[in-house]
Amino acid sequence: MPVLKDYHQQKVLILDFGSQYTMLIARRVRELGVYSEIYPPAISRDRIRQFDPKAIILSGGPASILDQGSPTCPKELFEMGVPILGICYGMQLMTHLLGGKVSKSKKREYGPAELGIDDQTDLFAGVLKKKIAEKESAKLHHDSVREPLTGRREALGIRVWMSHGDRIEKPPKGFAGIAHSENSPLAAIADRKRKIFGVQFHPEVAHTPLGKYILSNFLFKIARLDKLFSPGSFIENTVKSLREKVGNKKVILGLSGGVDSSVAAVLVHKAIGKQLLCIFVNNGLLRKNEPDLVVEVFRKHFKIPLRYVDATDLFLKKLKGVSDPEQKRKSIGHTFIQVFEQEARKAKGAEFLAQGTLYPDVIESTSFRGPSSKIKSHHNVGGLPEKMRLKLIEPLRELFKDEVRMVGAELGMPDQVVWRPPFPGPGLAVRILGEVTRERLGKLREADAIVREEIENAGLGKEIWQYFAVLLPVKSVGVMGDERTYENVVAVRAVKSLDGMTADWADLPHPLLGRISNRIINEVKGVNRVTYDISSKPPSTIEWE
Q1: pTM here?
Q2: Is residue 476 a contact partner of residue 448, using CB atoms and an 8 Å limit?
């Protein structure tokens, strides 16, 4: 078997100017086989050199380069000799910094637009051929392909997604226009000598159907990168680095049974075998039958050393009388550390603590996008007391959730683990609005099990990012058996997402919703009403607390 190269040898640096699509840029680059990371535009020159990017992408953003205080980046970036692609605001900033002219558009461009390609080399090489090849299979003729723009230069067009109120009036010295739209005579520009390109549209979104080919051209034809990043290369490199870092020491991992900690456990076990000890703390806030499933899968299927601790009574005691969401999270976090630390002390010789931290966890928990307000405490990042004396290893912190699932599949993990919907660290406590009690937990467990069972039986489990029940702190009037009832309300939440950073509510079939509602009301004692949550993130969050 050939040795895979370290994918860190060729990295793409993405500077985030606040676009809602920045995460999508990173995901698209990785899907194409190149590792990428996102950093704020204020990144220092030293950090850029340390990162050693082989290509740089400047994201879009909501600001106008014409506004005072708009975000910028070091001008030296363009003197590094590294291929650069500016997207939307990134293109406008690039133009501004390099001496071109940006002005307000007389007519803003938001949504679908026709892009006339004036130069079919470099960035747009083969794109028009791709559109022809995809006409039949993807039926893109009416959605993506357009005839030459009326009254414009003779160039075939493609459908793209625009989102801007400014436009390029004059390109910087050394740049030439390579594409246009009805509203933007310079919708794409290029300085081939310095390998710097800019596009006014968003190639990363699905609404630019041929965008992946444009990004592919930038990565492989312009930046001359190799496809080094894959689940296999990630596993090989991570196993190697874990062995080097851990040596013959022991590692402890807090296993929750969710996708992240489960994949982390199997990956670490592959690297160091019996040097890993998983500690599974049952906090009493897990889903129906979950504790038994975790013990069964990891002890018998994976043969991973596992210590099971049932701390249900302690957690419920700490949560008594607590209704504030942030207080719940802190109480659960502190109690977990208390129990976990007690068990960790029993593992003599342990020097490392492994966690299932993911890349979006890191970004959300560090207020990555600047001076934004803190939304909530996160369960995967930070919060480890110094007295634990354990060095932290986070083998998945470079990955998005879908990449974790692919790594899990590559490791041979069963679908029932790999495709489990995300579950918050505080468990059902943040799906019970108000005080958490044993009785309320029982109601929610049964309702949640019905939601998951019906959605999975309908074959929608892999299509939906997250689906669960929420117990509300209100009661409503109902009628059962000709008698008036005054009982609990359950909300059902199901969302579609790529990485959990943004999400849309899932449009579940009405018959499915009907079955879920009917079963919950009939099978869960004390519930007489079911509602469906149709809010998106943002402005809402996926969880209710």
Answers
A1: 0.81
A2: no
